[in-house]
């Protein structure tokens, strides 16, 4: 499928992959999520300095429109498609049971 179709699949909560990914790698759109300022100090995913700044400012965190790539070992990273991936086909939905 084209990337425009892949985006619609991501919006619908589907997992997708590209033909140039390694086996069992896929991307997913993280769900929109708000993290209150009370929860930030307990987060393991933020360095202490970032927590201090956010606490000082009284900020909450708002996760929006993030794509993450999931690797077979369970690691995840942010994902930004290459120009080739944007303009080529080769995207497909990943079935959870495959």
Description:
It is a single chain. With 98 residues, this protein is of the alpha+beta class. 24% of the residues lie in helices and 23% in strands. It is built from three helices and seven strands. The strands form three sheets. Strands 2-5-6 form a three-stranded antiparallel β-sheet, with no helix packed on it.
What is the percent of helical residues? 10-25%
The quaternary structure here is single chain
Q: Say how many strands there are.
A: 7
Strand content: 15-25%
N/C terminus separation = 19 Å
Which terms summarize this structure?
98 residues, alpha+beta, three-stranded antiparallel sheet, two-stranded antiparallel ribbon, 3 helices
Task: Write a concise synopsis of the structure shown.
With about 100 residues, this protein is α+β, with helices and mostly antiparallel strands. Helix content is about 25%, strand content about 25%.
Task: Compile the SSE list and pairings.
Blueprint: H1 3-11, E1 16-18, E2 26-29, E3 33-35, H2 48-57, E4 61-63, E5 67-70, E6 76-78, H3 83-87, E7 91-93
Antiparallel strand pairs: 1-7, 2-5, 3-4, 5-6
């Amino acid at each position: 499928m084209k990337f425009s179709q892949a985006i619609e699949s991501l919006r619908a909560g589907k997992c997708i992959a590209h033909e140039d990914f390694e086996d069992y790698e896929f991307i997913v759109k993280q769900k929109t999520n708000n993290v209150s300022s009370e929860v930030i100090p307990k987060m393991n995913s933020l360095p202490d300095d970032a927590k201090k700044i956010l606490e000082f400012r009284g900020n909450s965190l708002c996760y929006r429109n993030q794509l993450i790539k999931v690797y077979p070992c369970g690691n995840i990273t942010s994902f930004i498609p290459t120009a080739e991936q944007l303009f080529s086909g080769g995207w497909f939905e990943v079935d959870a049971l495959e």
